[in-house]
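Render this sequence as a predicted structure.
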Amino acid sequence: MEQTDVTSLIPIIITLILSLSTRNVVIGLFGGVLSGVVMLNGFNPLDTFGVLVKDHLVPQLTDSYNAGVLVLLVFIGGFVALMEQSGGGHAFAQKVTHWVSTKCRAQISSWFGGIFIFFSDLGTPLIVGPVFRPLFDKLKLSRQKLAFIIDSTSSPVAILIPFIGWGVYIMGLIQKEFTALNVDITDWEAFVRAIPFQFYAFLAIFIVPLVAFKKLDFGPMAEAEEKAQQGIITGGTKESLTAFTHKNAKSSFVWAPLLVMAVVLISMLAPLGFPFEKISGSSFRAALSSAYFFAAITLIGLMALYKVRNFSDGISVYLKGMGNMMQVAIILILAWTLSGVGKDLGTAAYIAEQAQTGFPHWLVPAVAFLLSAIISFATGSSWGTFAIMMPLVIPTAIAIDAPLYACIGAVLSGGLFGDHCSPISETTILSSTGSGCDQFEHFRTQLPYALLNGFIALVSFVIAGVMNTPLILIGALIVQACLVFALAKVHQHHLKKKHVTATI
């Protein structure tokens, strides 16, 4: 039953309203799915819920692609929990701190720590924050700066890597739309080709060394740094995360499992022609699941060998980590279901129809970026934003021949940008807690950097809509460097003027 009229948008509108008002994407997605099922089958409370489960939720779970994604996410969840609870990240970071003697080195080493601990956006604040906090205090660097570095290297790094939880989740959303539209592109290819268009992620990562090397602080961050230089810790909080540590933990707990993961992946995929030939999604997910499993076994064995955790404790942590992926699985299943219900109602067809009546194709990436940013800012959830926006943006891009990979990059960048600007997002809360910084102080000092990067990203997406070349990323990074230099110079001039006035 396809009805390509405005009523087909009702489930999406309900999803948005509930997500924004409750700040809970699961409630929003469930409300959207339920309203769509009512529109398709009429309203009868008991029958409607039965139809929802039997005809919409269960088929999503029994779909071989979806089941493969969910199984992989479970294996990833278990491995990430082991990594966070092994003490290896702390031991690795402690090794790095031996050569740290200057402010610049402290910032760069914490930046590298955040990049290296790429397997989890939650791993960065849990590990990097508690390790570097005392060092930042000792070198008279503000805790706001540490929170900013943590936030700039957690989600922005994780969102660029296809074989961890973020990438698997995003590819699951992309593939659902490709299957519905009969698009002959793999989810892996789409994700990888969209990476150069994830402008905001790259801008967020590269602003850190720029600021560190040249001391180019501006806005509230410059004031926080000035006070820290005087030995005043502003924005500090007693409530802070403590990373798991153990006297026997080794840095090999980090690199050895990752090495095993790489060897297993190459051993299973290289005979199939990877990375030069197209690999089926099922083979890729099977190889990834195996790689994460053997990496976890390696880590459990290492912890037992060095008497950090016995086998039983290691397996308990592993199983608990698997269980922690339940909410992610629920969001994915509901997002897939909403997409399926939308197809039955003709939502994508209606949007594409309207877009073809005059909406300029080159504006789609910029509009997708802005809408994703607004939803993410209001809900504090970038993952929920992706689940809402992908089913809208991908069909529209394909229907009016807008640059597909730039549009996918725009949704991802917008979700990340809104998340960085939101005082209620999980990454904002964890980054501030991990660095021992007040949540509002972190939000206040990071916002000017996020807005600067967001503005550059928006302009880049306008250009990408016209030119559609990955080279735009290089231009964006050059513009970022010029603007940061200019803003820092203006701020320094303002401070000098203020100082002279105060002296007179």
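Summary. DSSP finds 24 helices and no strands in the chain. The chain has a mean pLDDT of 85.
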